[in-house]
Every structure is written in C-alpha cells, then in structure tokens.
Write a structure and sequence with these properties.
single chain; about 220 residues; Rossmann fold; 9 helices; about 45% helix
C-alpha cells in the first residue's frame, strides 16, 4: 500500500538520523473537508511527533506569539493543522503582512518549512459533506462555514489564491496537493516530505506540485 510504504520510508529516515540536525515545521492548510487536519494528525501520530490543532491566540498576545513556543527543536518535526494561517480568519490584513516576515525569520534561523495546501473538487467536497450529514454524531459537529462551503466554493478559491500569492516566498513555498483521493494524498505528502530531507525513494508524489500563481488549482 503506497501510504504505508511512504510512512515506512519516513520512519527509516528518522531512525537513520536524517532529521538529527534539522528543525522541520510542516503546515497543512486547505478548504473545508480537504482533509488537512486529518493529514497532519495522521502523520504526526504515525511518526510520534507533536501535532498542533488550529485554535485562537491568547487575548492580548502578539498575533503569532504562541507559535514560537510550538516550533520544533533540532531533531524534531512539528505538524500544524493550519498553524499561523488560522490567524487569517480574524486578522487577515495583519496576518498576511506578518506571516511572510515570520517565515523568513524561521528560514534564516535554519528551520525547514514545508507548507501543503490541500485542494479538492467541488463534487468531492459535496460528497464528503453529505457523508458527514448522514452520521448523527459528525452532523452535530458541523459548523456554519462547513455547511456553507459548497455555496462558497468559488469565493474561497479566490480568497485562498490571494493568501497563497501573499505567502509564497523563497524557502517557504506552497505545495498544492490534489486531495480528492485522501489515501493517495497522504502517501504523496509523506513521500514529498521524505524527499525534502534527502530520500532517494521512488515512491510517487505526483499529487504534490509547487504552487504557481498563474495556474488554477
């Protein structure tokens, strides 16, 4: 199974010391139902590394303050569900200005920053939403943003394009993940991470591509 094969390669690299002198921060972002949270949580659990869920900053704190405490030390990998990009929801202009500066500082300080934006088709989004509605427990957890996501699909595409353009910088590039097939997407991201830290494996990661502002996604 490609997903397991890619995880085994990551684990092998971990044991071989490929991360020993690296500080790796991995951010998973994307639209509702893209699987960004599940992907970050799955990889973190599989590798025994920390996972940080998206949540609001503390009152009165600097916009990005809490994330400095969650950054990995040398030899560690940290997985973020949205990470500092969650701040865009309530403070878009400030966050869009500060995030590239914050990430530039991370790169200059020796961090390896891998950012993945998970994209799914409108048809797949509707399919996943309807599946949640059919589950009484999951249905009760749906929020307004998720319920409105099919109607807001095109608007979200435009807004996310603005974010990607504003925060796609040298050393902190975005990678777009075609995530309609979630298990294949997991495998592709795991393989991409492995290659980013030196793996020579031939495990396919074709579903992951560097973001190009002129391309539709």
């Amino acid at each position: 199974m490609p997903e397991k094969e890619a995880l085994l390669e990551l684990s092998r690299l971990r044991k071989a010391g490929a991360f020993a002198k690296k500080k790796v921060a991995i951010v998973c972002e994307g639209r509702s139902f893209s699987g960004k949270s599940a992907l970050a949580k799955y990889l973190a659990k599989a590798l025994g590394e920390p996972f940080y869920a998206a949540n609001a900053r503390g009152r009165g704190a600097w916009l990005l303050a809490k994330y400095t405490e969650q950054l990995p030390n040398e030899g560690e990998i940290a997985f973020f569900d949205r990470g500092w990009y969650a701040e865009l929801d309530a403070n878009y202009d400030r966050a869009a200005h500060q995030i590239p500066l914050f990430e530039k500082a991370l790169i200059e300080d020796g961090f390896t920053l891998l950012k993945y934006f998970l994209e799914i088709s409108k048809e797949e989004l509707i399919k996943r939403l309807e599946k949640r509605k059919d589950d009484p427990l999951k249905k009760s957890l749906l929020n307004d943003t998720e319920l409105k996501s099919p109607k807001e699909y095109e608007n979200y595409s435009k807004k996310s394009a603005e974010t990607l353009i504003a925060t796609h910088t040298p050393g902190a590039s975005w990678h777009i993940v075609a995530a309609d097939e979630k298990f294949m997407a997991r495998s592709a991201v795991a393989a991409h991470i492995a290659k980013a830290v030196g793996s020579k494996s031939k495990i396919a990661c074709d579903l992951v591509r560097i973001y190009e502002p002129k391309l539709r996604f």
